[in-house]
Amino acid sequence: MQDLVERLYGPADRERGIPATVAWLAEELGELAQAVRKGTTAQQLHELGDVLAWLASLANQLGLDLDDAISRYVTDPP
Q1: Number of CB atoms found within 10 A of residue 26's CB
Q2: Helical spans, DSSP H, in the chain
């Protein structure tokens, strides 16, 4: 997923920068919350995709791998 987001949006994402990417991620998370409360399954799926794409963009800009981020749930779940 990170590779796809990088290919599609990498240069634009880096130009936008990390603070703006975090702001967009937060906005998309709000849209997901609204879709969960009042939206259709199709709207929820759409917003889930947006949140995942912005999260992947942020991880790419930070130089981090989402697979590494989630791997702690295998050995040391919170």
Answers
A1: 12
A2: 2-16, 18-38, 41-62, 66-75
pLDDT per position as a tens digit, 45-64: 999 999 999 999 999 999 99
In 17-40, where does DSSP find H-type helix?
Answer: 18-38
Mean pLDDT taken over the chain: 97
**What's the count of helices (H) and strands (E) in the chain, helices before strands?**
4, 0
Rounded Cα–Cα distance for residues 16 and 47 (Å): 21
Return the pLDDT at 75: 87
- pLDDT surpassing 90 at residue 18: yes
Among residues 43, 19, 23, 21, which one has the least CA distance to residue 32?
Answer: 43
Domains parsed from the chain with CATH numbers: 2-75 (1.10.287.1080)
